Amino acid sequence: MAEQTVAVGAGLPAGEYSVHDRERWLPEQHSSRRSDFARDRARLLHSSALRRLAAKTQVLSPTAGIDFARNRLTHSLEVAQVGRELATSLGLDPDIVDTACLAHDIGHPPFGHNGERALNTWAADIGGFEGNAQTLRLLARLEPKVFGPDGRVYGLNLTRASLDASCKYPWPSTSSVADPSGRAKYGFYADDTPVFEWLRAGAPERVRCIEAQVMDLSDDIAYSVHDFEDAVVNGYIDVAALGSRVDHDDLVRSMYEWIGGEFTHDELIAAFDRLDNLDVWLDGWDGSRRSQARLKNLTSQLIGRFAGAAIHATRQGATGATLVRFGADVVVPPGIQAEIAVLKGIVATFVMSRNTRQPIYAQQRQILTTLADALYADAPQHLDAGFAEDWHDAENDVARKRVIVDQVASLTDQSALSWYERLVRQ
What we know:
Elements: H1 19-22, H2 36-45, H3 48-52, H4 72-90, H5 94-103, H6 112-122, H7 131-142, H8 160-165, E1 177-178, E2 184-185, H9 193-199, H10 210-233, H11 239-243, H12 248-259, H13 265-276, H14 289-317, H15 334-352, H16 358-378, H17 385-393, H18 397-410, H19 413-423
Antiparallel strand pairs: 1-2
């Protein structure tokens, strides 16, 4: 990963986190001098859920035969690097933000957002599927680490501050919000209400802590910049045509539709012009080492541009002595938001919205829903041991169907294909 400088001037003094912030759902005693938040990061870093991200789709599936494209794990590591520097510059605990960044995608199923749509459809009668809600479920229940004296599972049993920082949408499905594609976004399932209420104790309703906001911004920055980089490297974007404005009106129209009207056509055109006028913007691509170096330099400069502007604006907007938890909000200048949206829109237009990929997406959805049907019909046979135990402990059909969702969501792209071949096409 290219070196990136995102800080602007000296960082703010580190804020104080309370005993309340450091509490765990199941109290623990430790003899080492490692901080509570460093312990959280270590637990997440060593989790099997994080390792599985290495074989899950970011934009291109790891099964697509492109062995150097980013996957969910490399993306999460890059998000964490950006987030850690942002946290340090803003006086936040870097381990809290690092943990939230590493965790932000662990709830995603095989095949990325396409797989998320498939499972949401399959689970519509039990409350649906949402990757962020699944993240909380993994952190607080499914990832095996801590069990109580009564046998109750607590997942990784992270501190309240780290768990809250990982919660991108702190509200239930009954009051969800829709993203630009129309998908309902929320933070927890109904049967995970107890842990959600615990982690949000004392928090303002529907307000994200600043650490969660930094995680979200870091994700946006890394997603927009690195997916653009991957799309260039893998030949999805014609750099020369992009710079010469070939079919430019159609591109801007497509970006506008993908983004969902958050910015006007004129704002998107102005943002594209600002990026195109940067000295480091690409004027061609031939795959040579020189081209690769120029692309890496563009990546670094864009990350520094976006993060640096947010750091400056957030500091300017802060009124209290400390920013931690609910002491301030992240501020991203509108022009920077538009530039990030332009990069996302370019990738969406050239990669995710291509008609040639639509049959692939349909096939992926069919694989997951058919696999879920097969597992549900034969359960608990074929389930991993932990999910088979959950099936036996389930009190009703709703809970049992949720076990199938948990099992399918845990699979990597390759294991989903293998299970489908073994259980459906045998």
